[in-house]
Amino acid sequence: MIVVHGGAGPVAPDRADRLLAGVRAAAASGEGLLQRGASALDAVVAAVRLLEDDVEFGAGTGSALTRDGTVETCASVMDGATRRTGGIVAAPNLAAPIIVARALLERGEHAVLAGQAAMAFATEIGMQPVAHGALVTPRAQAQWQEVRAGAPRTDGGGVGAVALDRNGGFASATSAGGTVFRRPGAVDDSSVPGIGTWADGKVAVSTSCGDAAFRIALAHEIAARIHDGANPRSAAKDALKQLRSLAPDSVAGVIIVDARSWCALHLGPAMPYAWHDNAGPGAALVSAA
Fold it and tell me: Is the pTM of this model over 0.85?
């Protein structure tokens, strides 16, 4: 079972079909691996990696721009069986941060690396930054111009995946280019295990939010509620309600999978998501809390 999200936030009507096609393809990619006996970790990384290369989403290519007009990408991954994690923070011009995050998890030396340290590790494993501007899309440039001119910044965005494999293993992966017009070097929620990503022996969670997610450790808060007996939908709904009480204007989304079911909920206009479960594949754009 796998669920994929393409970020919470406003969606222009002319983009809806492209967003749904993107999350469907990502979910199908992960499900194909699961059907061949791959681990949940393999599946979520493959799904997120596909979305990092899709210009419609705010991760990898299409990332939001910093105040300096640059791209700094973030990602994290977590393996439920071992509770091992890997996180990459504010890596300049890194097109595939989820691959580097997984390598960091597997290396086991550190949990999170930031900035130039993250890039040095990426180079060590054979990945190089792309040329300056290569990850910038016209849509991201337009958003940057709007916020620079005084429009409000919007949180949310990014992509994520959660999965359960045939051996009962859970995994979660999240990747994002951050909030539009943030300070360079800002730590995005997607790069921090427990905030944007969580997986353990019972559940996997990926979120799309922004800085507000830090106020309640959103991914871990949902997981803790499930461990206390809540089902995924009620856990997500109550956590998002708590988040809104602290940050009324926040835009947030979550996807969850446990041993029996999955859930996708959000605060805000929309969130594209897709899934493969025992009943087959599906995709949707809106599932509000």
Answer: yes
